[in-house]
Amino acid sequence: MKKIVVLSGAGMSAESGILTFRDMGGVWDRYNIEEVASPLAWANSPKLVMDFYNTRRKQLLNVEPNKAHFALVDLEKKYDVEIITQNVDDLHERAGSTNILHLHGELRKVRSVDDDTLITELEGWELKVGDLAEDGAQLRPHIVWFGEDVPLIDYAAERVNQADILIIIGTSLSVYPAAGLMNCTTSLCEKYYIDPKANQQDLENINCIADKATIGVPKLVENLINKKK
Questions:
Q1: What is the DSSP secondary-structure string of 46-62?
Q2: Burial of 178 per CB tally in 10 Å (0-12, 13-18, 19+)
Q3: Which residue, of 15, 91, 199, 227, has the fewest CB within 10 Å?
Q4: In a shared domain, residues 47 and 85
């Protein structure tokens, strides 16, 4: 069975109604990224950081997976599929995909500030000052913040290197180190890039599909399933 690795970014979830840092309007205009998504922000204003992620977590309860998420589930009928996502939502899981790696953490999980292996799923959507992990330390969002290492990046690179087919969806290819994963394939890997601005990128040896995820992903999935022997 051929192996497909999917790299998904913010454009994948945006069509479900999840705003990205680069979107204008609403809650995002009230913050600079450094004020709510960095170790310094946590040290200076933990409640502000918690409130920011509480708002995102509450919003997540009101959105659903879209056609692109569900199309990737269909791929599992004919391929060994692994999803490596930059997104911190759980829409891939809720759609039914079974093999997912979250590079930048998970919004619905929290962890101890003293032991990053003590990870738990948050009940409900609200994290507060005084909510403690099992080791007695304050819980923090299970998110990789700006300025922090991406602990799973080496493992992700190994998985991409094993891919027969690489599908990149809804990312600007500008956030590193995640963007560098596309260069970890073997020379025999078949590569696709789905994004409305895909044709504006200077890329070699990759099939660019200039569509939003809900259009481009189902079409590509159908083609891949139909050509599978």
A1: HHHHHHHHHHHHHHHTT
A2: buried
A3: 227
A4: no
Report the C-alpha gap between 172 and 182 in whole angstroms. Answer: 12
> How far apart are alpha carbons 31 and 52 in whole angstroms?
9
Which position among 69, 92, 104, 142 bears the catalytic label?
104
Query: Residue 69 catalytic?
Result: no
Is 186 found in the same domain as 95?
Answer: yes
Per the structure, the complete domain to which residue 49 belongs is given by 19-62+106-143
Within this chain, do residues 75 and 177 fall inside the same structural domain, yes or no?
A: yes
Confidence of residue 176 (pLDDT cuts 50, 70, 90): confident
Residue 28 backbone dihedrals phi, psi, to 5 degrees: -65, -30
Q: Mean per-residue pLDDT for 28-33? A: 65
Co-location of 132 and 198 in the same domain = no
pLDDT digits (tens, 9 = 90+) for 72-104: 999 999 999 999 999 999 999 999 999 999 999
Q: CA-to-CA distance for 20 and 87, rounded, in angstroms?
A: 10
- 168 with 194: CB under 8 angstroms? yes
Entry pTM: 0.92
CATH of the domain at 212: 3.40.50.1220
pLDDT at 23: 54
Per-residue CA distances from 42 to 35, 54, 141, 196 (Å):
8, 14, 10, 35
Q: So what's the pLDDT on residue 8?
A: 97
Structure tokens at 118: 């003590």
> At 48, which CATH number?
3.30.1600.10
Is 75 in the same domain as 186? yes
Q: How many domains does the chain have?
A: 2
